[in-house]
Amino acid sequence: MEDDRGDGDIMTITGATIVVGVAGSPVTHSLSPLIHNAWIAAAGLDAVYVAFPVPAEGFAAFATGLRGGIVRGLNVTLPFKEIALELSDLAGQLAEKSGASNLLTYGADGRITARNTDGPGMLDAIALQAPGFDPAAGPAVILGGGGAARGAAAALLMAGSPAVRLVNRTRERVLTMSRALGPLVTGYGFEDHRIALKDAAVIINATALGLGGGPGPQIDFSAAPREAVVMDMVYKPLDTQFLQAARAAGHRTVDGLEMLIRQAAPSFEAFFGRPPPEEVDVRALALETLARMARAEAAA
Ligand code: NAP
């Protein structure tokens, strides 16, 4: 699999190039190709990571049509994480528990394996940016009721959180989720969020609010212990209004870019059977790209 493409400045596609990628809708602005191709180049692999913009109704046909290793593997993003799990033949424990998969790998025997690396990515990001955080220290509060919230809830429970409180606009959605995840998971509306924040060890924004620089979820941080760690899964912008408000209230914060990078690392390992090369600063690369995107948007 190794090749002799030197320092990776020029990407050469050969007849044997291994293809991996990310499927989503929309997916054009994904930072995953940047991260994975930087690792691929540094590792000297004959491989390429591309984005597949798959139409909403077309994911099952697309993903099952790749059986047998036409591509080595796929990351899966919005809105296909649930269907990715449904169409797989084998599933990891966290994918099964959360009902969502962000990583499909294709075996040569035709089988598709579904995994969830979002949950461990989130926990690794918290461990890195809020050292000493202990999930067992208190309930986790997750704002949101979509695929990201579900993966986070399952991962936190598996890591030892004593309870998970889901706060979401659509109450029915979190009640359905709490039924699927078991009695340690309870659902709240935003009007009750102050009750949910009591004793919280961690507060996570897993809604789409704040994406693109708008206001994040409006919550009263004074209802939470000052020690609660606050994380935002949104990483565009990196320093969201939600994180700024949390810091102003005295909380330690964790950003969504670190989660993106940390979920990518086990994906790379699943694709290529080796961890990503440590010498590449993919966070710096991603920050440069985010800054360039922000400048282009401001100029438009
Ligand atoms: P999703 O399934 O579409 O869920 C979106 C969530 O946002 C739902 O809970 C939805 O509430 C809520 N929401 C949307 N607009 C809202 C509004 N105006 N007011 C209140 N709530 C609103 O998306 P997802 O896959 O869970 O992703 C959620 C966020 O996490 C996205 O910003 C995504 O980019 C981010 N994410 C980041 C990473 C990372 O690696 N950093 C990984 C995964 C996801 P309803 O249920 O009421 O509609």
Commentary on this structure:
This protein folds into two domains: 7-116 and 261-299, 3-Layer(aba) Sandwich (Rossmann fold); 119-254, 3-Layer(aba) Sandwich (Rossmann fold), CATH 3.40.50. Mean pLDDT is 94; it is low at 1-6. The chain has helices at residues 32-43, 59-65, 81-86, 93-98, 118-129, 147-158, 171-181, 193-197, 241-248, 256-272, 282-299, and strands spanning 18-24, 47-53, 73-76, 90-91, 103-106, 112-115, 140-143, 164-167, 185-188, 202-205, 229-232, 253-254. Helix 1 crosses helix 10 (256-272). Helix 1 (32-43) links the parallel strand 1 and strand 2. It is of the alpha/beta class and 300 residues long. A six-stranded mixed beta sheet has the order 2-1-3-5-6-4. A six-stranded parallel beta sheet has the order 9-8-7-10-11-12, with helices on both faces. The radius of gyration is 19 Å and the shape is globular. It binds NADP nicotinamide-adenine-dinucleotide phosphate.
Task: Annotate the secondary structure layout.
Elements: E1 18-24, H1 32-43, E2 47-53, H2 59-65, E3 73-76, H3 81-86, E4 90-91, H4 93-98, E5 103-106, E6 112-115, H5 118-129, E7 140-143, H6 147-158, E8 164-167, H7 171-181, E9 185-188, H8 193-197, E10 202-205, E11 229-232, H9 241-248, E12 253-254, H10 256-272, H11 282-299
Parallel strand pairs: 1-2, 1-3, 4-6, 7-8, 7-10, 8-9, 10-11, 11-12
Antiparallel strand pairs: 3-5, 5-6
Helix pairs in contact: 1-10, 1-11, 5-6, 5-10
The structure holds NADP nicotinamide-adenine-dinucleotide phosphate.
